[in-house]
């Protein structure tokens, strides 16, 4: 499998390009709108054909390139069943995204957001914001819930083999990859923690809102192509602190 990790310094987002060497088919995971030309250039250089663009969740810190990439390449955009309704396909637990002779298995890992997915392949898992390197995604908006995230990580992700490489959607400290075994042992929010201890940690993070949240949420509910009239991308009101409906 061809694997390239790409980085957007503004949002500290990792984008992953995966390719099948036999068919030259490829997928992108968590593509960033401002990096579309970089990503397409690399796809051309590696003689790949983009078939799918996957988002692990509706991001709050950057605008997805999924819609634009689908329009420019014919690739299919992929989200979770509670994600952006404009996606080409919506997937759930146990579904597979095939490209050439390879495939990614869908894991539903809600808690950071209610639509959060992870994608696994032999020896690798792409965890979005559900599991970061020595951390995890926040749970205080987009219908996040710390107890749900705890179950997603400890019951699904931590059940993978210890040697599985963890590829997160973000890193803020210069780390690029981890393993399930490392995170089970060293993740300060999760290692040895009960669900109540984890929930208490998450309730007291006291983080400010992502800088692009007013732009990113509505744009990403439209697959990055346009924003809806409501500043929060939903028709029923809501706020970032209290969450909002899964569909706009």
């Amino acid at each position: 499998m061809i694997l390239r990790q790409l980085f957007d310094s503004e949002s500290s987002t990792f984008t992953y390009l995966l390719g099948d060497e036999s068919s030259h088919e490829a997928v992108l995971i968590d593509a960033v709108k401002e990096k579309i030309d970089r990503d397409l250039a690399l796809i051309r250089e590696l003689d790949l054909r983009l078939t799918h663009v996957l988002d692990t969740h509706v991001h709050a810190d950057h605008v997805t390139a999924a819609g634009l990439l689908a329009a420019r390449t014919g690739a299919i955009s992929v989200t979770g069943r509670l994600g952006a309704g404009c996606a080409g396909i919506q997937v759930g637990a146990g579904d597979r995204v095939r490209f050439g002779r390879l495939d990614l298995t869908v894991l539903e890992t809600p808690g950071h957001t209610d639509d959060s997915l992870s994608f696994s392949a032999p020896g690798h898992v792409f965890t979005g914001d559900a599991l970061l390197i020595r951390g995890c995604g926040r749970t205080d908006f987009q219908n996040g819930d710390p107890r749900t995230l705890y179950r997603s990580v400890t019951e699904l992700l931590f059940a993978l083999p210890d040697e599985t490489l963890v590829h997160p959607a973000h890193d803020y400290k210069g780390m690029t990859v981890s393993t399930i075994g490392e995170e089970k042992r060293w993740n300060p929010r999760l290692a040895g923690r009960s669900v109540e201890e984890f929930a208490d940690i998450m309730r007291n993070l006291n983080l400010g809102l992502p800088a692009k949240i007013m732009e990113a949420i509505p744009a990403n509910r439209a697959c990055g192509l346009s924003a809806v009239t409501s500043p929060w991308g939903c028709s029923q009101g809501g706020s970032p602190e209290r969450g909002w409906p899964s569909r706009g």
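The two ends are 36 Å apart (CA to CA). Residues 227-248 have pLDDT under 50 and may be disordered.
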